[in-house]
Amino acid sequence: MYADRINSLPPYLFATIDEAKAVVKAKGVDVIDLGVGDPDMPTPEHIVESMCEAVRDPATHRYPSYTGMIEFREAVANWCKDTRGLELDAATETLTLIGSKEGVAHIPLAFVNPGDVALIPDPGYPVYKIGTQFAGGEPHVMPLLEENGFLPDFDAIPADKLAKAKLMFLNYPNNPTSATADVKFFKEVVEFAKNNDITVVHDNAYSEMVYDDYTAPSFLSVDGAMDVGMELYSMSKTYNMTGWRLAFAVGNKDLIAGFGKVKSNIDSGAFDAVQRAGITAVSSSQQCVTDMNSIYQKRRDALLKGLRGIGLDAKAPKATFYMWVPTPDGYDSMGFSKLLLEESGIVATPGVGFGEYGEGYIRFALTQSVERIEEAVARMDKLTI
Ligand SMILES: Cc1ncc(COP(=O)(O)O)c(C=O)c1O
Q1: Could you tell me the fold of the domain covering 4-43+287-381?
Q2: For atom 14 of ligand 1, which residue has the closest CA?
Q3: How would you classify this enzyme at the top EC level (predicted)?
Q4: pLDDT of 70-94, one tens digit each?
């Protein structure tokens, strides 16, 4: 009944975890969920207010434009200039997305022919691989190893794969490892992409989630990046707007046009009222982002202290709301996450769910209060590991 592309899919990781969580919850366990990367705090009030106003305006009730409201795209172009010095032409170098997941899933349709290779990070956000497969492309895994700072090693890509490579996904600050990349690395990426004729998609979904005075550089701020790439930004994590489905792509105008062509044949754009709220988000004071980061930083520090206290080799991330922690001796990632759920009522994500090179790690998301995180650590302390 199903097409091969569906039959060959593994179950979506978070759906599987949800099922296991439901079983434990049904037994009456008070589950502490540090699994999925979905902010627990509400969307800031001024953004909600703006949406309420917009939704009452019948002008927002009609089909949106395929490429997105020009006012939203002008606002995001200004935000990119203010926050990272990018000079973008809103009309040709920006595109509204219905969440960056939508972008990631559809981009390969624009740039990958059946048989072409897309280079994808492993561990990584699972949609890079699935989106490539849906387009008939062949995902080639670039291992992200701790000894390389979780950056890919381009020299390790076999020549035959490189010859067929058309597209590369990157993501820094990174999910799930929380690694960051510097400008020097992005310069290498541009050179590699130019030498091998590869389109680069830098997924910057965690661009604003930063700690300890760190700022995450934009891939597009590097000389030559606008010739070879696009960058995806998302409202989801930055403004606690995961449910609203709003993101945007910026970058090379021919790439944006090609991607826009695919989208105009698939969806009918993001709800205008949501885009108006998006304008408010990017055009107002960014204090709400700073405030959220300081809350996440306190949670990070509480989890770090707790995990180290029980002997796990946890490190403080400079960005993202994830902690990527090696599993204790004797446990693989599935085994340790099962132990945490069944014995302690804690949900964490097994590293192997992000690819084979995620084995040996577990990911905690900082989506609970400091008190709940301390409670989680106290429960873990009782485990014999
Ligand atoms: C690396 C990465 N990219 C993209 C997304 C999708 O974000 P959204 O579709 O909400 O913009 C996520 C969500 O967790 C992510 O971790």
Answers
A1: Aspartate Aminotransferase, domain 1 (3.90.1150)
A2: 37
A3: transferase
A4: 999 999 999 999 999 999 999 999 9
Spell out the CATH class of 45-285: alpha beta
- Atom nearest to 236 CA in ligand 1: 10
User: Tokens in use for 173?
Assistant: 């600050």
176 CA closest ligand 1 atom index: 16
| Residue 307 near residue 361 (C-beta atoms within 8 A) | no
Q: Give the span between the Cα atoms of 212 and 47, in whole angstroms.
A: 26
- Is this model's pTM higher than 0.90 or not? yes
Helix (H) or strand (E) run with residue 251 in it: strand 247-251
Distance 28 CA to ligand 1 centre (A): 31
HSE-CB of 246 using CA atoms within 13 angstroms: 27
Residue among 93, 105, 34, 38 at smallest CA distance from 67? 93
Ligand 1: distance of its center to the CA of 104 in Å? 9
Mind listing the pLDDT tens digit for each residue in 292-343?
999 999 999 999 999 999 999 999 999 999 999 999 999 999 999 999 999 9
pLDDT digits (tens, 9 = 90+) for 148-182: 999 999 999 999 999 999 999 999 999 999 999 99
Question: Left, alpha or beta for 137 (phi > 0: left; psi -120 to 50: alpha)?
Answer: beta
Residues with CB under 6 Å of ligand 1 are 37, 99-101, 104, 125, 171, 175, 203, 205, 234, 236, 242, 247
Residue for token digits 């349709």?
109
Q: Which atom of ligand 1 is nearest to the CA of 37?
A: 14
